[in-house]
Automatic annotation (TrEMBL), chains A, B, C:
InterPro entries from the UniProt entry: Rieske_2Fe-2S, Rieske_2Fe-2S_sf, Ring_hydroxy_dOase_asu_C_dom, Rng_hydr_dOase-A
Domain Rieske: 9-116
Keyword list, A-Z: 2Fe-2S, Dioxygenase, Iron, Iron-sulfur, Metal-binding, Oxidoreductase
A GO MF term: dioxygenase activity
Protein name (database record): Aromatic ring-hydroxylating dioxygenase subunit alpha
Pfam families documented for this protein: Rieske, Ring_hydroxyl_A
The keyword Membrane is annotated on this UniProt entry: no
CDD domains assigned: RHO_alpha_C_GbcA-like, Rieske_RO_Alpha_N
Domain of life: Bacteria
PROSITE patterns: RIESKE
Cofactor field: Fe cation
UniProt key word Isomerase: no
Taxonomic lineage from the root: Bacteria, Bacillati, Actinomycetota, Actinomycetes, Micrococcales
Length: 380, 380, 380
């Protein structure tokens, strides 16, 4: 917890979860609880959810709207920037309110995604990747989206198993719904295609070429940038084609919402996917966005929060059907939760020893290499 | 647990919970389980609830009546004083029953309140406070009361947070029912009254003067004695006025039971309140008594047991209505349980640091000072 | 766990639970999970239930039938002997399947009882006891039985308390159903009979003599062999008489299934009982067999699995009534679970100290002596 979650930029929420000033969400990373609150200038403050008086948790709901933040115990009242603005006191009581603002964490909003950092000195490396990833993400204009649905799954495995599971498609036979649109050849490359996937691979190649032509036409970046183990803010970003109609995560590959996001020119834009260590991944499509956040609970449980965003003017029942929109990833998440639980259980046996990674799992190896580096640096 | 609960006198129950010889209650302090059983002479024995044969828990109910104490495993049978009086054995089996009495803890009954001590040598300091507190308590004659109601709340916080919460009324805005009768200026003094409480304070002062006059007339002690951090058996005792009619913890301040306790001469006697470290507090009124005991479960949970006592000849439905009698403190206890849980959660964050105490919280500071002293002595 | 369950032969199941090739059961000993699978040659393989790829638990059901063992995560496929026979891979991927068979534990089938050993070098002492115990067990021909019923109880006590409880009948007043057929004088001997058991003892002596005559006639061994603390595979075996009709664990002592096991010549054969450390005991009667296995969960919980076996051609509702067959031990098990829980609770008190064992508990003392020896050897 300290080495990884204490020293890195962590995904917390998207701006669609905090559309108006005063809107807040609370998120927990292990024993840490944080309040993210939108201020009047549109910024997002990250505040430790710990009253400076007696330590009570200040906000107890997962989300809501508030003017000031009032602790439920003795009514100490904080502004959305954390400043203590009221604490009942006796006349003449010497007490400097300025010393007791809620502790702040660092926060950044990148293309509508809110990140926080618990470290005193956040790693500067995060700044360096922003210019690289923003061109991929900005066209989806998250600030013009709204939350269609949010799902929390308490997975019976630690956060590391959750992230490892996300870095390979070697298990994609276990995701029949997802495999309709996401090519199960993901993670493979020429010369490594197993016979039963050769046909899919050909389709994938063709779709990829078409997508790249389309992106070139629209000036959208698509190149795979893979820096999972070469920097502190390990990440992978790309825009990749989808199977079938190539529009969205549906059985046919067709759009799931009728409203295009932002000023996107076309529905057939595949998926812009970002994996960002240590705790998040994202799929941005032309018609909706899905954010995934892993919040560690303890050494054997992780809360995985999935949020579906659609254009803020999309109307449920008219422009999208909620069950259809969320079907593929709801199923996929449940399948993944089961895989993670199997690993947690099995790897808890004293008989467990690390096995070999297949070539299609090279990103898992990269992630583990990153983890080793980060922990070595922390422990040094 | 060892430093505090192993080395101090602990409140366990009142004699009203054990009215007849053979009546018992079992109480747990962390991993310790004790039997309190009334013997034929009216004394109360405190016995470790651990069979001397194979270690089985002897009594499993929270309370009841028994002749001898029979272990459910092999029927070893103990007298109410713990003596082993029967263990099935083979003819000629050499076995000295005298060596296997149930282990005893120290016990004392003070004005009808039963205390136990787990230490080999109980701190003598407890003897010293008895002559001080008895004159306050004895007039309520607990030996002539009966249990009207008992409530157990499993609070999601450690016992220290429970006790700290009890030492201040800075949070009394969170107790609307209680604030009808208990002056929320409690803990304040002249010159420290915040503007919104000035009117209450004037009422409080007037009521206090009237109560003191009345007590002087009846020969009842009322002076505040506050020795929270100046001795091992840290305590605070006083008789203080109540708001409204000044009789009891009701919305109007009027009596909640029609029967006066003991030989008390008047219903308008406010509340005689005792706080006794480490684990109890009491409110004794003219018409009923409430005892509060904090039983630590583990490092983050505490069982808080509240018991309402009325005159033993008071008849439910005639002299008192049970819901009305218990309303104020049932609500107050739930509110306090919530406050304690907020503190436990918030203070578990690595971002927590101790904050400033307000003047109205001076007793919390005293309690913490006592705790530090006691732990230092234990660790030395 | 390591000293005892890591270094001894452990009972897992009987062959009646795995009648056909491909049948499997999974059993857990603390953090260890094992698959027992019957192979085509009638042998039983014990395999660690941990995929060699990423550590996922391979089989998740408690029992079933399978061809090969397929991991649910990435479909790695193992033969019933643990050999990895398929793992999807890319063309040309260098990967030696021979190195990634499921790890095996040692396994032995003794008279139809399946034992496993987690140690690299199993203690040889187990081999030595087999010729001693087989003559007692083999006549019941477990390979011609079937499972009539299986009951799992999660006992709130550690495995050691479970085993200790099983080694004495000093508590048999707590087993009224069992005491109808199992003489509660069990564990006693001449000169040690308490007065209230004298009549039972006389009956017991007579029944014993009759049983021994009968066994002599049929060539069945019956002598008590008690090596609880004189070897690594501590055990006790005997054939002892039952009360009443002397046939089975019923109220009258009469048979509970109409079909004799194996080629047994008579129903009146009492009980052939085996206690085998560290985790099992067995009662073999002429009409049915009961196996008991203690699977430790953690330091305060144990799963006790009881399995009733009848002749494989016995027909439920015709030859036996399931409720009647299982009644005595279902009740006895629940009573024992309560005793174990009482001990776990009481012995967790810091006030607990070990008490004296009565002569009728000499086998508990032997078991504890064995435990001390085994742990000393492990820690040395």
């Amino acid at each position: 917890m300290e080495g990884i979650f204490g020293n890195h930029w962590l995904f917390a929420a998207s701006v669609a979860e905090l559309p108006e000033p005063g809107d807040y969400v609370t998120v927990d990373y292990g024993p840490h609880s944080l309040i993210l609150v939108r201020d009047d200038n549109g910024g997002v403050n990250a505040l430790h959810n710990v009253c400076r008086h007696r330590g009570a948790r200040v906000l107890t709901e997962q989300s809501g709207t508030t003017g000031n933040l009032v602790c439920g115990y003795h009514s100490w009242t904080y502004a959305p920037d954390g400043t203590l603005i009221h604490a009942a006191s006796a006349p003449g009581e010497k007490f400097d309110k300025d010393c007791f603002a809620l502790k702040r964490a660092h926060s950044r909003v990148v293309a509508g995604l809110v990140f926080i950092c618990l470290a005193t000195e956040p790693p500067e490396d995060f700044d360096a990747i922003i210019p690289t990833i923003e061109p991929y993400l900005l066209p989806h204009e998250l600030n013009k989206t709204k939350v269609a649905y949010q799902q929390d799954i308490l997975e019976e495995g630690n956060w590391k198993l959750v992230m490892e599971n996300n870095r390979e498609c070697y298990h994609c036979d276990g995701h029949p719904e997802l495999a309709c649109s996401l090519f199960p050849t993901w993670g493979l490359s020429d010369g490594l295609i197993p016979p039963h996937l050769e046909e899919v691979w050909d389709r994938n190649q063709t779709a990829e070429q078409e997508l790249q032509d389309r992106c070139d036409r629209y000036g959208l970046p698509y190149r795979v940038i893979e820096e999972l183990n070469t920097r502190i803010a390990g990440f992978r970003i790309s825009r990749e084609s989808l199977d079938g109609h190539g529009e969205s995560f549906s059985e046919s590959g067709r759009r799931l919402s009728k409203k295009l996001l932002g000023d996107l020119p076309d529905f057939r834009l595949g998926r812009c996917s970002l994996h960002l260590q240590p705790n998040s991944w994202f799929h941005m499509l032309s018609d909706h966005v899905i954010t995934f956040a892993a919040f560690p609970i303890n050494e054997r449980q992780t809360l995985v929060r999935t949020t579906w965003l659609v254009a803020d003017d999309a109307v449920e029942g008219v422009d999208y059907d909620l069950d259809t929109l969320t079907h593929t990833w709801k199923q996929t998440n449940l399948q993944d939760a089961n895989f993670v639980a199997l690993c947690q259980k099995g790897a808890s046996s004293p008989a467990y020893e690390q096995g070999p990674y297949m070539k299609s799992e090279y990103q898992v190896e990269m992630f583990i290499d990153w983890y080793r580096q980060r922990m070595q640096e922390h422990l040094a």
